[in-house]
Please model this.
Amino acid sequence: MARERKFSIDELFHETNQLLLKHGYDGFTFGLLADSLNVSRGALYKYFENKDELLTNFIFYEMDQFLLKLKQIDDQQGFEAQFDFLLQLIFSHVDIQKLIKIAQQIPGNEEKFGKLHFDMYQYLQGFIELGKQEGKLKSTIPNALILGYIFQSVAIPNHFDIPTSVWVSSIKEIIRHGMFTNT
Amino acid sequence: MARERKFSIDELFHETNQLLLKHGYDGFTFGLLADSLNVSRGALYKYFENKDELLTNFIFYEMDQFLLKLKQIDDQQGFEAQFDFLLQLIFSHVDIQKLIKIAQQIPGNEEKFGKLHFDMYQYLQGFIELGKQEGKLKSTIPNALILGYIFQSVAIPNHFDIPTSVWVSSIKEIIRHGMFTNT
Amino acid sequence: MARERKFSIDELFHETNQLLLKHGYDGFTFGLLADSLNVSRGALYKYFENKDELLTNFIFYEMDQFLLKLKQIDDQQGFEAQFDFLLQLIFSHVDIQKLIKIAQQIPGNEEKFGKLHFDMYQYLQGFIELGKQEGKLKSTIPNALILGYIFQSVAIPNHFDIPTSVWVSSIKEIIRHGMFTNT
Amino acid sequence: MARERKFSIDELFHETNQLLLKHGYDGFTFGLLADSLNVSRGALYKYFENKDELLTNFIFYEMDQFLLKLKQIDDQQGFEAQFDFLLQLIFSHVDIQKLIKIAQQIPGNEEKFGKLHFDMYQYLQGFIELGKQEGKLKSTIPNALILGYIFQSVAIPNHFDIPTSVWVSSIKEIIRHGMFTNT
DNA sequence: GATGAATGAGAATTCATTCAT
DNA sequence: TATGAATGAATTCTCATTCAT
Model:
């Protein structure tokens, strides 16, 4: 009965993603988004009361998607398989880390997203424990650091355009056995 | 007979540092800085044509300071000593990484700062080469990744407040020999 | 076979009344009204071309209702009875005064409502004349002031919550014989 | 040293007064005011953080001016003189009543201005008491109503342009001895 | 008749920047 | 040099109103 929508929430989220990564939290504006979608600013306010609500919703949505996939780590048999799964997942969702950082800038959500981050870590406790039980992971290293390290590795800027395969396998090697030889 | 300056560039840079880290690129304003220094906005424009020029100058200055110290790595004898020196330096200049990220947001400076980052890496080529010559560093890992990894490690958020000494020594261990056992 | 109306004009006017008194002319919006009636904004535009038309219609309607009752003043025998009737009527329609003030804010209706106000006064000429003929009302006081005074008395804010009966009888006393003693 | 001001706070308040009375609380905008003063909107924000702060300040200022004059009522000898003084004052500050009503619309100031109104009444307790002591004012009428009535009388709209002198003396007559004859 | 989308104009507010003194 | 004023552009947000279904 009503007029047909000029854009879907999916499209809106898609554009939001692009613009957010490109311009950052402060640089992202309703004007930018409206232009991307070829709609008026006002139209966006029908769906989200303000910028922060939009971004909060969007990032929660993305995080949920990511956590859903992360959950599948439990389907992998053995620590090594889980490790590979995790790295592959992280590398195919590079932007999630950036979004999380952006999320932390949204005023009023500090705890909310702090918690989310925390949850994600919690989520991987099983994986860590398994690694330590299997004697694969060094028991002396704090769990938080292990996870932090793995997640962080995705953020190392590849300024020199080293081929992805080399890059990724090197990272795995460092994570596993470090950059020092055993001599 | 000139009127005495109400503030020195040192003070200006010091406040800039504080405010920039606290509020980020967009959040940093001349108003904020002027208030911190108890001067008028207008006065700041006598020294820097605009916000971006100020920030560019400031970050270059900081980077120079850092590079100066980094240069001292050559005074260290042997790769192991240089490695320790580098890590200690990075951990005592945590904010440099943040400033670099901020620098990348300044429009028109993309390459400029890309280059600076690049230079810093260049700077450490000697260190890397030494490590590989001494047979300490795995020769298969790209130099850029080695440095990237080392620098990045400082940015892993210690959400669970693990004591610094444990944190740092664990990081060193991972960098050296990874998080996997050798079994 | 037409779809049944989801709301009657009576309901619409009733809600308009509430909202108008609560939020004032500027604060009253179609959105507010639509929500109260559980209809869409758009639906309201089927009945009234715009906000001002709605409010104009509504206030005219209310005024008509009020004038209808006011007309009954002629049924009262004698000036004293008419006086009591009038006061009782005014006190039981406190909001009419507010609506009239609001009406004066509607752009383009200045004269229209000026006239309406005027008419109401005209309406009570008979009452005034009777009072003066009966020698009850001081002939020196302009008719407009007599009516203005009576109507205005309803608008005195009772900040200290003096009981209505005391309040009203005191007002009557002032209107009749003033607040000064006769000494 | 700095540029000369294009407008003074006095001019600003003067224009505010005009515009506020003409357009009401909602209708009053910084744009309107800026235009009146031939300045940019932005300039106004140097003096007042926002519309409400401006209006609050302005109205407080006006009220203070008024209360200052009101205080002089104590210089008048005897109740009759005070009564005349009060009426003359009120009639020469017709707009104060309107401003007070507007003040009540400013969100967050409800109590603040409620109190101010209250204070003004308190201020006149002495006058009322004197009137009752001298046996001039009917002791049965609540003080609040006496004052309310006096203040309110200024607000009766003189739609028919009755000459001020007649209007005012008639009002005084009604206040003193009512509109009824003594028969 | 009714809906819900979309528009577009206007208002508040913030700042980088310019300018007269 | 420094000041404090003023500007103007950008941004957020709110509605009255229009429109396709």
Q: What stands out?
A: The mean pLDDT of chain A is 89. Residues 1-4, 29-31, 41-42, 45, 49-51 of chain A lie near DNA strand F (CB under 10 Å from a C1'). The first helix of chain A runs from residue 9 to 27. The domain at 1-47 of chain A is CATH 1.10.10.60 (Arc Repressor Mutant, subunit A).
